[in-house]
Amino acid sequence: MGKGFFQVPTAINEPVKSYAPGTPEREEVLATYKAMYNATVDVPLYINGEEIRTGDTGTMSPPHDHKHQLGTYHKAEKQHVQKAIDTAIEARKKWADLAWEQRAAIFLRAAELIAGPYRAKINAATMLAQSKNIFQAEIDAACEFIDFLRFNVEFMTQIYEDQPDSTSGAWNRLEYRPLEGFIYAITPFNFTAISGNLPASAALMGNTVVWKPSDSQIYSAKVIVDIFKEAGVPDGVINVVYGDPVMITDTVLASPDFAGIHFTGSTHVFKDIWAKIGTNIHNYKTYPRIVGETGGKDFIVAHPSANAKQVATGISRGAFEFQGQKCSAASRAYIPKSLWADVEKHLKADIKSFKMGSPEDMGNFITAVIHEGSFDKLAKYIDQAKEDKDATIIAGGGYDKSKGYFIEPTVILAEDPKYTTMCTELFGPVITIYVYDDNKWEETLALVDQTSEYALTGAIFSTDRYAAAEATKALENAAGNFYINDKPTGAVVGQQPFGGARASGTNDKAGSYLNLLRWVSPRTIKETFVTPEDYRYPFLGE
């Protein structure tokens, strides 16, 4: 199954629009935002191309304006989940046999729809549903999603071109078959691009999918469904269900045809799913592929040689963009005493300049956290830090949920490097800083490596190349995405494939060919041109 004589378009990263005052894209997205805010939508299940409304509904509201209702979504019953499974199994018969270039064309078309007519809509939906400011929405819902779709096609052709050697007497080839069964995609609230990529990447390789988006992302997920429909994804290839996550997952994992899971979410949930798969292993037709990207407790480490202003900017952006609701967000930092006064000065100045509120006001850098549960959790840890003697809040610490779920960007200074918020994943605009003695650089690197169960992203700042090299080696297992003199967020498809190990996931690197390899099952075919007709080898003699 090779590329043949077809030449696919070369994948390049989608340029980020500026949305500066007076630009046409700024006016378009604001008008789209207002129109969507003032309308209400009714989001059905989507199974085999059919829109199904169960009457059991949940509501959707902007996190920054939680009393306003954007619409409702319909929750699946077990029968609907089973229908989605049956549909996916049936649809696989035709989809798996479709030529690779036909599948590629569908998802390349989806990329162009996002780049053009759907750009303002998918960005505005992400601003409304997930409280992303326009820049965060643009780099996610538009650019990263487009990049996933385009680069995945290029990665697919690279995989198909990888063929074994042949001889004059035999032709050896590899078929990259889709998995035997269906794929279950569970996607998070925080990235629209991830929500679209998890089902799309598996489908591109010939698999069919049952997709469950996060309840907090259904509003923008509906836009993804509309794009896939317009791009020509056939009925039954990607089926979408919402509702009780335990019921949906248990129903999916009970099917003998379950062939794999593509997951982004919490470590605890992923481990529970893995355990259920293990319990059901004797029921499956094949060993399921388990691919997951989970939590992080991501770090910034500054060497005494680092530039204080650069470190402060790395913290400001790395910890507080999208309210720290990125699995890659910086949530612990280690600063040398000799640098701390300058870093603190610049960091406090940055935070003081932040504006917080609705993403409709494009002067706002900070908006709301995703829902009340997240708000209450963060408020609890902030309140505890106010009481603890070994912690001091040096910036932020306020919160208010009367209109939206707003948490001030908060910096905690910890005397104990193992203080609670240095170790616990919070998933919000809170970073904890530990100031270390300059002469304890090596000990601090060991501390960074040993503090967390996670190993997703991390960054070091240093103008000393020996120190940078030392940190790169010492922290080789502490982060799957490692940054030198940059913040630990912002991985770009095709440039920094994303994923971590330890409790952060299976490190299958979304945004690379490595992830796509998980959704195929290779078959080796040997064709002999002149077939032997005598079993005897020369060593046997006459």
UniProtKB/TrEMBL annotation:
PROSITE patterns given in the database record: ALDEHYDE_DEHYDR_CYS
Molecular function GO terms recorded: L-glutamate gamma-semialdehyde dehydrogenase activity
Family: Belongs to the aldehyde dehydrogenase family.
Superkingdom as given in the UniProt entry: Bacteria
Coiled-coil residue windows: none
EC code: 1.2.1.88
Pathway(s) served: Amino-acid degradation; L-proline degradation into L-glutamate; L-glutamate from L-proline: step 2/2
Protein name: L-glutamate gamma-semialdehyde dehydrogenase
Organism: Aquimarina rubra
Keywords: NAD, Oxidoreductase, Proline metabolism
InterPro entries, per the entry: Ald_DH/histidinol_DH, Ald_DH_C, Ald_DH_CS_CYS, Ald_DH_N, Aldehyde_DH_dom, P5CDH/ALDH4A1, Proline_metab_enzyme
Domain Aldehyde dehydrogenase: 63-513
First-tier enzyme category under EC: oxidoreductase
Catalytic activity: L-glutamate 5-semialdehyde + NAD(+) + H2O = L-glutamate + NADH + 2 H(+)
